[in-house]
Amino acid sequence: MKNAPTAYLITCAVIGVAGAVLLAPANWLSTAVFAAAPFAAVAIAGLWLLPAVIAMRLLQRPGAGLLVGLISGLVIMPFSGYGYMSIATNLWWAFFAELAFLLVGYQRWWTWLHYAGAAILGIVYPLLAWVSFDLGSLSTPALIGFFALTLASVLAATAIGILIADRLAKAGVARGVRPKRRWGVPAGDGPAGQH
Amino acid sequence: MAEQLGRTDAQRRAAPRSGTRTSSAPRSAPLERLNPLTKAAGPLPATVLLVLVRDLATPAAFIALALLLLLLGARLDRRNLLFLALVPAIVLTTGTSLSLWADPARFEETAALLRVGGWTLHAGALETGFATGLRLGAITALALLSGLTTTGPDVARSMVQQLRLPYRIGYTALAAFRFLPRFGHELEVIRQAHRVRGAHAGRGPFAAAARWLGTIVPLLAGAIRHGERVAMAMDARAFGAHPTRTERHVLRWRAVDTAAVLLFWAVSAALLLTVPALAG
Q1: Alpha-carbon span B53 to B102, nearest angstrom
Q2: Distance between CA atoms of B190 and B212, rounded to whole angstroms?
Q3: Do residues B205 and B73 share a domain?
Q4: Residues B157, B250: Cα–Cα separation, whole Å
Q5: Least confident window among B66-75, B103-112, B240-249
Q6: Which residues numbered 151-170 in B keep a CB inside 8 Å of some CB on A?
Q7: Do residues A46 and A154 make contact, with C-beta atoms less than 8 angstroms apart?
Q8: pLDDT above 70 for A146
Q9: Residue B149 included in any domain
């Protein structure tokens, strides 16, 4: 991170701010929906993953997702009122956008790794939420709905994030920041002339 | 200059500037004078432990504590009062809906409070629902302690100055705050361009959604290009050339910050240990 180019850091900042703009209303929407129908609120939970997925797909660098999470957490603070908790929440969700790539040592950037990270989140989040929301007290259909909606939401957000990042890449954005390798091909294995 | 040192954003905003404020202008609130990290470190253990609490009295005690501290120590403008009113609203609505969604079979042995056709609201369901509602309300109230008295740039500064986050990352976050107004302007330009070309024309929710989706990629592309120019300007000024840098706003960790954290931990421990027994 110390030798990261300034352009990379600022690009993450821009994606983080865009994420915060997206999450500021989503934050209130999810609080309101949670109050009415707790398990339905997770339908938009994937939005918290979206900025980090865009960053990881577009920039393909270690830490891009977490940096975006940190910045969207900081920027959203005045709108959410949750203070440092906003930062913790955004970092926590962004971590899962990084997780699958962390596990392969940031050596491979296959598309399915994005979905793998999201799927892990889709399973881990309801289990952790179990304690804080006392999910054991819910009726079975509500419980199945909670799990299914979480998984569907994070997978859909990942698909949208990949789509947006690919269209940005196609538009030639952040060309100087992305490592010079083709999608999914590790550095060094590309055509001659690449470093 | 020396008196500027150690001030938080909120204090700087409250301070009179060029005579536009009279002497009756509000002084910075007590909680605003604390280091941003104090207001995160203090409530953190209680927030984590509250997740495991199951009774009604403990979260209620923490809500009372947090609201009391906010009423005494935060600025009570309209926005902050609105946020304070949010806490009871969360407790009531979440508690009610969770009692309704609870599995009735689990609470059949408790007293029936309400019967509508074949469906019964049991006392146990209501208690479990409100225990969760109060718990979430308490976690929200504790988060408001930092949320209503701290600004994002101050948190970024204290992460650099106290937590030793690399300053290049901290200053990236500070730059991010300056992108927000730029985003609004850019969005307006893109909307106008789309309107001129008649893109995603039409009425109704689907056309509105298509219009909204159509702005995401151009907005991000434009903003990233702007960001790259900003980065180039920063590089041209040798941003990050040295391992350390001077700070325009210095935030201090004072003895009062240590005292506040320790006091909050002690009160949290006392509440967690005694309240369930007293209510019990």
Answers
A1: 18
A2: 11
A3: no
A4: 8
A5: B103-112
A6: 151-152, 155-156, 166, 168-169
A7: yes
A8: yes
A9: yes
Do A35 and B94 count as a contact with CB atoms less than 8 A apart? yes
pLDDT score of B198? 84
ipTM: 0.84
Q: Which residues of B touch A139 (CB under 8 A)?
A: 101-105
* B245 in a structural domain: no
Does residue B77 lie within any of the structural domains?
A: yes
**pLDDT tens sequence across B8-44:** 776 776 654 444 444 444 568 888 889 999 999 999 9
Interface test with B, best of A28, A80, A85, A87 (most B CBs within 10 A): A85
Query: What is the rounded CA–CA span in Å between residue A151 and residue A142?
Result: 14
List the domain range (segments joined by +) for residue B31. 2-157+252-279
Domain positions in chain A: 6-170
The pLDDT tens digits of the residues spanning B184-215 come to 888 899 989 988 988 877 788 888 888 888 88
Count of H helices and E strands in chain A? 6, 0
The answer to whether B238 touches B171, Cβ cutoff 8 Å, is no
Please determine, for residue A79, whether its predicted confidence score (pLDDT) is greater than 50: yes
Q: Per the CB < 8 Å rule, is B147 touching A133?
A: no
Query: Token digits for B149?
Result: 């008295």
How far is Cα of residue B50 from the mean position of the Cα atoms in its chain?
18
**Cβ–Cβ gap A139/B166 under 8 Å:** no
**For chain B, how many structural domains are there in total?**
2
With respect to residue B246, please indicate whether it lies within any of the assigned structural domains: no
- Per-residue pLDDT of A25-67, as tens digits, reads 888 888 888 777 767 778 888 889 999 999 999 999 999 999 9
pTM (global) more than 0.80: yes
- Return the CATH number of A6-170, one of 1.10.287, 1.20.120, 1.10.260, 1.10.1760: 1.10.1760
